[in-house]
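Appendix C reproduces, verbatim, an entry submitted by the partner laboratory led by Prof. M.T., so that reviewers can inspect both the input and the predicted structure.
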Amino acid sequence: MKQIEKWGLTKLHTEECFGFLKFVKEAMTSLPVSESDEPDGPSISSLSARSATGASPNLDAAMETFNEKFEQFDSSLKDSDENPASAKAAALDSQRDTTWREMNAYARAMTAHPTATIAAASAEVWKIFDKYGDPTSLAQSEESGVLHNLLADIEALDSDDKTQSGISPWYDKLAALQASFEEADQERAAIAGARTKGIVKQARQEAETAYRSLAQVVNASVIFNGEAPYSDFIDKVNGQMDRQGQISTRRDTINAKKKEEEEGDDRPTTE
């Protein structure tokens, strides 16, 4: 007998939770809905022309509640996106992207300098850029990590190489932009965090509760009416759970390995 599997939504990031619930909302079009004689009818009737076989007032109500709570969750996320620090961070991110591209082009061009000592020093700088690749297409947080390491490696270069290559003015500009971006990003995170702890957190919890209630009603309906009216919905939801679960597992594994590596440096050696 098919059933919607039990699965913990709380471990998902907020955006991941929203994405999963949005998938559920779209998949609901395959569930049966009661026919209505009311002029407007229930809002779920407008989602698609569906069969009434297997429908029930309890299922109708569960879908209505889920729709309502999902829309509230959606609205709370849109409100939280209106962050006054976001525009500042975005502008600084664009500036550091441009500076990285110019700095990268300069370092590469200088490897062909006609003066051998300058070309050799520039080659040392270029090795660092080649090592990290282009970070400008990455998410802002990932780009920050790459630029932090790139700048640290350039800072650690032999002083003669930095002087000969002429990279220092570019380094100073990118380092200043990186520091300004991180400050704006922290401000943005602080504002977003305060909002997430309030409106977004509550809206998410209510949407999760509405989803669990819907799943319980669907599973109970299978017992009374058989699998057929709900089979497609159950398969879609379980399949999405499996895909999202794999993503979460991979993230947990990466984080665990990273923590092990960080802690490993502090562990006493044994002889």
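The radius of gyration is 27 Å. Additional entries are available on request from the coordinating office.
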